[in-house]
Amino acid sequence: MSNATPEIDSSTKNKKVTKPKKIFDAFEYPIAYCIAGVDEVGRGPLVGDVVTAAVILDPENPIQGLMDSKKLSEKKRQILSVEIKEKAIAWAVGRATPEEIDTLNILHATMLAMQRAVQDLSVTPDYVLVDGNRCPVFMNINGNIDSQAVVKGDDRVSEISAASILAKVVRDDEMLALDELHPEYGFAKHKGYPTKAHLEKIVEHGVLDCYRASFKPVAKVIAMQGVLPTKTKSDVVEVEC
Question: Is residue 152, in this structure, part of any structural domain at all?
Fold first, then answer.
C-alpha cells in the first residue's frame, strides 16, 4: 500500500468558497388601504445628515424600473426620482442632523428621520413598510400606524424602492453641493463614506462642523489634532449638513 500524500490542486486549495446568496420569496403585501414605503440613505458616511424618504405609490399610475437605488446608475436614479415625485400619491423626505446622530446614535437618529418622513406625507398611510429588520413607531391622530420591517425591502417592495431612490438622490445632491464648498475633501467622489482617500483628506484639512464627531475616524482626528470642527462655508451654497 502506498503512503504517498495525494497531490492537491493549488488552484482549488486557495479558492475562496462563496456562500450562495439568500433568495427571498416574493413579498406578500398586507391587507391595507394606503401603504407607504420607507427607506434611508447615509448611515455609513462620516459627514452630513442621514436622509430618509416615504412614498405612497399610485396603483393606477405605475412606475417602471423601480429597484434598489444602489443597483441603478446615477442618471437612472435622477430620472426615476422626477417620475416618482410626479406620479406618487404622496412623498416626503425626512432627515436627522449630525448633531442628532452624535446625541442619539446613528440607529436612533435614523428611526427619528423615518418618523419625520412619514409625518410629513400629505396623505396619512394606514400601513408603513420599512426596509431592513426593524422599524420605529409611527403615529397619526388616531394612534399607532401598523408597520412592518422588510428585509431586502428595497428590492422586493416597490414603495420602498421608490423611497430608496428619492433618499439616495437627495443625499447625493447634497454631497455634490458640499463638494462645491469644499472641493479639497472630494465629497463628489466618495459621498462622505470612509474611503482611504477621504480619511487622508480629513487628516490633511481638518474636520468640518458637518462631520459626525461621534464616528470613530472623525473622533480620532479631533483627538489627534486637538481642534474643534471648522465651520462650513455657508455663504457660498446652502447645504444642510
Answer: yes
